[in-house]
Design goal:
Blueprint: E1 5-13, E2 18-21, E3 27-35, E4 38-41, E5 46-49, E6 53-60, H1 61-70, E7 76-89, E8 95-108
Parallel strand pairs: 6-8
Antiparallel strand pairs: 1-3, 1-7, 2-3, 3-6, 4-5, 7-8
């Protein structure tokens, strides 16, 4: 979407993701990722740590429940999402701005670890983590069950949708494609 700032961050979780529910019962998980840049000092032939950056992150719906169940404090993760700025006034009346990532994808870094991924049970076939009941259940498929099916997800009320992909009027144009011959 226009006007959004995509960002990918690699870092460690500072605490277990905090799973809460809105008054309407919608799950939301919040967590913080600490990312420390490293630079190589040619004079000493050593790597040096820079100043750590702490970024607050949030995920919604089934995606939030998957994150809270799968990730924990200290895990090295790769987070991809949209950077959001929030302005507020502090106790002293000063204007402040904080930055938060509206997470689209998150997973453990496999650079120094191994992971076994298990797929959630899904009632819908052929859609990416979404079903006609609002994307509950199914594989997170890149956006945590927030309407990632290519033909549209009428029940999607998430903050992320696949842009033009969800404007298809609810019909999956690839559903009838034959597997034996290409369409051209």
């Amino acid at each position: 979407m226009a006007g959004e700032t995509p960002i990918t961050v690699i870092g460690n979780l500072t605490a277990d993701p905090e799973l809460r529910f809105t008054p309407n019962g919608v799950p939301v998980a919040n967590f913080t990722v600490a990312s420390t840049p490293r630079t190589f000092d040619r004079q000493t032939n050593e790597w040096r740590d820079g100043e750590a950056m702490f970024l607050n992150c949030s995920v919604w719906r089934q995606f939030a429940e998957n994150v809270a169940e799968s990730l924990s404090k200290g895990m090295r993760v790769i987070v991809s999402g949209n950077l959001k700025a929030r302005s507020y006034e502090d106790r002293n009346g000063n204007r402040r701005t904080s930055y938060e990532i509206d997470v689209i994808e998150i997973g453990p870094s496999l650079k120094f670890a191994a992971a076994k991924v298990s797929r959630n049970q899904s009632s819908g076939g052929g859609n990416w983590g979404g079903n006609s009941a609002g994307g509950q259940g199914g594989w997170s498929g890149g956006n945590g069950g927030q309407g990632g099916n290519w033909g549209g997800n009428p029940g999607n009320q998430g903050s992320y949708n696949n842009g033009d992909a969800n404007r298809g009027g609810g019909v999956d144009p690839w559903a009838s494609a034959q597997t034996d011959e290409p369409p051209f």
